[in-house]
Amino acid sequence: MSEFGTPYWWEDGAQLPDLPEKPPAKAEVLIIGGGYTGLSAAITAKRAGANVVVIDAIVPGKGASTRNGGMCGAHARVAVGALEKSFGRDTAIALLNEAPKAFAYTRGFIQDEGIACDFEQNGRVVLANTRKQYQGLTALAKTLHDLAGYDMRDVPKADLGAHTSSNAYQGAVFYPDHGGLQPRKFHDGMMAIALREGITVVQNCPVLAVQGREGAFQVETAQGTVAADKVIFATNGYTRKPFNWLAKRVFPLPSFIIATEQLPPELIARLAPGRRMMVEARIKHSYYRVSPDGTRIIFGGRAGMVPYGPEFAARRLRATMLNVWPELEKVKITHSWRGYTGFTFEQVPHVGLHKGAHFALGYSGSGVALAPYLGMKAAYQALGDVRGETAYSRSTPTTRIFYQGGYPKFLIPAELWYRQVVDRFEAWQAARDQ
Ligand SMILES: Cc1cc2nc3c(=O)[nH]c(=O)nc-3n(C[C@H](O)[C@H](O)[C@H](O)COP(=O)(O)OP(=O)(O)OC[C@H]3O[C@@H](n4cnc5c(N)ncnc54)[C@H](O)[C@@H]3O)c2cc1C
Question: Could you list the residue range(s) of the whole structural domain that residue 186 is in?
Answer without folding.
Answer: 3-433
